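Changelog entry

Holo records now carry the ligand SMILES as an explicit input line rather than a separate metadata file. Below, a converted record for nicotinamide-adenine-dinucleotide, shown in the new format.
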Amino acid sequence: MNFKEQILQGIPNELPAPKEYSLNVNHAPKRKEILTEDEKRLALRNALRYFPKKWHKDLAAEFKKELNDYGRIYMYRFKPDYKMYARDIKEYPAKSLQAAAIMMMIQNNLDPAVAQHPEELITYGGNGAVFQNWAQYLITMKYLATMTDEQTLNMYSGHPMGLFPSSKDAPRVVVTNGMMIPNYSKPDDWERFNAMGVTQYGQMTAGSFMYIGPQGIVHGTTITVMNAFRKILKKDETPKGKIFLTAGLGGMSGAQPKAGNIVGCITVCAEVNPKAANKRFEQGWVDELINDMDKLVTRVKKAQKNDETVSIAFIGNVVDVWERFDKDDIYVHVGSDQTSLHIPWTGGYYPVDISYDQANKLIKDNPKLFKEKVQATLRRHAASINSHSAKGTYFFDYGNAFLLEASRAGADVMSNNGIDFKYPSYVQDILGPMCFDYGFGPFRWVCASGKPEDLDATDNIAAEVMQEIMENSPAEIQLQMQDNITWIKNAKKNKMVVGSQARILYADAEGRAKIAEAFNKAIAKGDIGPVVLGRDHHDVSGTDSPYRETSNIYDGSKFTADMAIQNVIGDSFRGATWVSIHNGGGVGWGEVINGGFGMVLDGTPEADVRLKRMLFYDVNNGIARRSWARNKGAMFAIKREMERSPNLIITVPNIVDDEIINSEF
Ligand SMILES: NC(=O)c1ccc[n+]([C@@H]2O[C@H](COP(=O)([O-])OP(=O)(O)OC[C@H]3O[C@@H](n4cnc5c(N)ncnc54)[C@H](O)[C@@H]3O)[C@@H](O)[C@H]2O)c1
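Structure line, unchanged by the conversion:
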């Protein structure tokens, strides 16, 4: 059977042969044993409902073994044999171009060059799932291949519930991931209900098919690290020869050394998993690999002396690096961390003083002891950072729940008021006030032809549009415009494409809509093929996350999730091709609600209407909320938008004088 026939078949007619558990792939760790005997029966019954009765006996034994061995039923046997990658959109069997684009995006998220644990259908972040099992993948692809533009596919946490009649203007797919009754949203609830096969952790762009490899985060990390250095350096100083110390070379964290090189500093990035470190080294995302601490110290001192720009991966635990640099008085200018602390007990964060393999064994054999070791490590980690910061290091939390988990472990990270952390989150200090409040966020696009020439053409179009907008921009956003123009002009040179031909560019509502409009015109002329637009959920609007995206909301509403829900509903009737809303993503299950969209541009006048309607709303809904929270930049941005868009009428806050409030207490 060729590729198209296999897709159209869905669940195969013949039971495929069992698959060997491949040893050269990065597999998800065994998940926690959490189900009772009765719940295991339920998990099995749930898994078998995807298959005809005649296979149940064989599959029951196999799935039971998967559940015992891995803590989940992935249905490895059903993983298709064809190569998994984003093909040219024309290669997909489809009645709907929009649906074909979604198939391409799904395959990109599962491409072994892109995905963290491809056989477990995990794209990034340790547990960011596209599907829970291979049956869901097969059925979804078949639905997409056969659906028309008058149907909508409903996806419940990876499960394709089915195709419903809708209309051309409706989204082709509506995705929900991990949506729980709020009282059932503790980390163990994810373990339990995911093991039962009824929910999944979609992260942000994993379960919404919008991941574009670590490039997506390189841009945000570049902006963050560049501005972190700007905060502490004198006007005439550059980051050259100055250290940025951090950890993690996984799905997203792998972007850090690349961003460090673009910023021009010395990046030291510790990674305990040699496979992850090697993968990033082979992909050219980090310059040097070192696994000996003495060698690291010698190399770093040399780099400091020679004012180098270089990125170094240290294979080992980051706590050892912080402590050794402290002991040897190696001055760290900027520090952060990007281990997966949103899942600290299942391999997101590795304890110091035991090997990587021993730690993985402990997760299975003695989870209680593993947890104790993680918490002890966090206390040591924080103590060493405190010691560095007393010498002048600027440390920021990079949205991985480091400070949250460190505080829960009893580490010394709270400020004197006992409410706030000692260190800022990158959104509070940098991204929030400088970017999100003005509407700048991680807009992105994918060239569905798969041709690098199309990506080059879109880069040029975007640069021209941004340049033109910048000429009439107010002073408040000139720096952001300039940083983003520099970014897009160097994007090709920085070789960031892994997987689909994709690009990320921080842009505001005006920039996003004008760039998209110009793309649609180029498609209509036949200069480029169709383009898929989207964004990270980590944006101005899509996400309510009190410790990250909305950590710079100070009116008490950061613990509400109305904005994320409003956004996804609003996008879906304004022209999105698909929408998604997730519980969990970045900071952890139960800690965030985040949503996003995908939009296919095909060069038609209808696409032009959709992009203008939806992109405007998608960004301005978030600015309106940020403005209502009294954020100065957002108040400026929404008033400016109202002046040029008469149909936009937003409630703006009146600012009360502090004396009036204080006089009442
Ligand atoms: N700020 C942002 O914009 C942003 C974006 C995406 C992800 N995140 C968050 O960042 C974290 C990392 O994401 P990811 O996709 O890279 O996850 P990941 O699991 O792919 O990578 C984390 C890496 O950290 C390594 N690690 C764990 N403990 C370590 C230790 N003590 N010392 C050295 N290395 C250690 C792991 O081996 C792993 O490779 C997640 O919590 C994620 O939610 C933040």
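Spot-checked after migration. Residues 367-391 form the longest helix (25 residues). The two ends are 76 Å apart (CA to CA).
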